[in-house]
Amino acid sequence: MVFAAALTDPGRKRALNEDAVNQLVTSYGGIFIVADGMGGHRTGEIASQMAVSQIVEVLKRSEPSPQGLLEAYEAANEAIYLAGQKPESRGMGTTCTALWLDLPYALIAHVGDSRAYLLRDGELLQLTQDHSWVADRVRQGLLTEDEARNHRWRNVITNALGSFPNARVDLVGLKVRPGDVFLLCSDGLSGVLEDKVLAEMILTNPPEPAVAKLIKLANDWGGPDNISAVVVTIGSQVAESPKPYALPLDANNGQPVHLQSGTDPEVLTTQIAEPEKKPTFWQRWGSVILLLLWFGLLGFVLFNQLGSGATP
Prior knowledge:
CATH class of the largest domain: Alpha Beta
Strand content: 15-25%
CATH topology of the largest domain: Phosphatase 2c, domain 1
Mean pLDDT: 84
Helix content: 25-40%
CATH architecture of the largest domain: 4-Layer Sandwich
Distance between the termini: 102 Å
Shape: globular
Largest sheet: 6 strands, antiparallel
């Protein structure tokens, strides 16, 4: 059983809402997305809407799997990138965080600084890592979380759909537990409200009032950016269902695991390893040849020494 709500708002300081959201509950779980567009004029709004519509359409036609989620992001990236080649659309792109519930699994794909959170047993866990300049500096130990929150470059994104010919996507997988609550949001929410406030709102409210209260609180705190939130609550029972794919062991135990993108879906189920390569001639015989040369050189030196020491 899945209960969900999605809401977006332009905020107090922006005339145009460049965010886009979507929620679609299905028989197997559902599809939930938040996107935050960027670019001049109306291109950010177009980019976020393109991402959401493209991904939903691909996922609706696909069997749930990590590879299917990647392919949906790749299709959206290609469409936005091509649209951004027009002179009037230069610089268009969008963040995008999607939750594909395939109960009892949750698959999450992520690009940019929109976020996915998991509330479990009263504890809020950020599942995604921001692709931003300040987040990189925090991970390097050069900025604190508080410094990053107020830094003048906090809105500088290092990865977005449509910015590059090929999508660079983070994947997260985990096994869902009864009572889990997922929050997807744009930085207009996470950049204004602290994690403890986010946790309290989604812990004490069903999805629909939760998203409304979250957006109201962000606006009460100034609403400096567009604000979007999607809350997805898992019911008291989660049916076990065999899947044609598997997740790493930790994910099956309910612990989030970051999967590596750009790989064969079968490889996603295990620790990523370098593909086996046939050894070259020098890799196979190089050490033998060097050893023979060394013995040859040693023999040559000894022969000369013996020859020079002989009595005529």
